């Protein structure tokens, strides 16, 4: 099933899908083991930093092989693509979906760069995601809030032809200093204004109740990255503090197992929102 069809199906059912970033073999296996144990679909996401770290071909092959090995229904997605050129490379590499993030550009420029990626993705049968509004990235201020507006969301989707829209409704990338308050009434209005699949970025740290309410109001894709990196590294740091073991094959599985526990919890939140 194409990702666009899957997201439309989930939206009609009032359910969501988890989109998890991976950074190496261990983080990949951690998220896939969780999806396999619960028999849930999953979107595997790669950022430019992860692509640069692992290499594009290696990263894609890891994802494809992992999905097959664990028997998980899944798709590979470019997260926060910053240029048409990167999106093109990922399309050529066989990504199922690409995101072009022009959210920091003026509205008209965001439309133009997004239209170009949609045009290129069409011949590949690939899914395209874009972002509208201000969802603070790592290192950026959480104080500024520019929410996605329903009228602009409709215009943006109509003019670009995107499949999915990441909306700014009160989330941010990274950890929160205080509990976020999602603009659920605004989300409901955005959902009514467009048929595009709606995406929640900054899923790390969002309380389960708010996430479930967001899904019931139109969100069908929830991104998770920061918590995966955090639990992997914190677990490793703890394991190695008083440990003289040099065999990484004995140390890494402990951290991988913690990722599996985390992602299983998140999958249950995303799927059981009735």
From TrEMBL:
Q: Which domain of life is it from?
A: Bacteria
Give a Pfam family name. Answer: F_bP_aldolase
Report the transmembrane regions from the record.
none
| InterPro entries the record matches | Aldolase_TIM, Class_II_FBP_aldolase, FBA_II
Q: Which PANTHER family match?
A: D-TAGATOSE-1,6-BISPHOSPHATE ALDOLASE (PTHR30304), D-TAGATOSE-1,6-BISPHOSPHATE ALDOLASE SUBUNIT GATY-RELATED (PTHR30304:SF0)
Q: What is this protein's record name?
A: Class II fructose-bisphosphate aldolase
**Biological source species:** Gramella jeungdoensis
């Amino acid at each position: 099933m194409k990702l666009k069809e899957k997201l439309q199906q989930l939206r009609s059912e009032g359910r969501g899908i988890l989109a998890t970033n991976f950074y190496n073999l261990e983080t990949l296996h951690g998220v896939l083991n969780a999806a396999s144990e619960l028999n849930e679909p999953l979107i595997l996401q790669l950022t430019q930093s992860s692509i640069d770290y692992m290499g594009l071909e290696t990263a894609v092959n890891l994802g494809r092989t992992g999905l097959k090995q664990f028997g998980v229904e899944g798709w590979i997605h470019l997260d926060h693509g910053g240029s048409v050129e990167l999106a093109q490379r990922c399309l050529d590499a066989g990504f199922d979906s690409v995101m072009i993030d022009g959210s920091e550009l003026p509205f008209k420029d965001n439309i133009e760069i997004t239209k170009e990626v949609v045009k290129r993705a069409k011949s590949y049968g690939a899914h395209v995601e874009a972002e509208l509004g201000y969802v603070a990235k790592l290192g950026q201020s959480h104080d500024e809030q520019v929410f996605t507006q329903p009228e602009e969301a409709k215009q943006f989707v109509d003019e670009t032809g995107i499949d999915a829209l990441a909306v700014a409704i009160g989330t941010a990338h990274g950890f929160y200093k205080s509990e976020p308050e999602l603009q659920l009434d605004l989300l409901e209005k955005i959902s009514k204004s467009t048929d595009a699949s709606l995406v929640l970025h900054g899923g790390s740290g969002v309380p389960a109740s708010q996430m479930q309410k967001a899904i019931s109001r139109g969100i069908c894709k929830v991104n998770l990255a920061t918590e995966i990196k955090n639990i992997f590294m914190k677990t490793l740091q703890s394991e190695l503090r008083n440990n003289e073991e040099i065999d990484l094959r004995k140390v890494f599985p402990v951290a991988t197992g913690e990722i599996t526990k985390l992602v299983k919890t998140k999958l249950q939140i995303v799927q059981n929102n009735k």
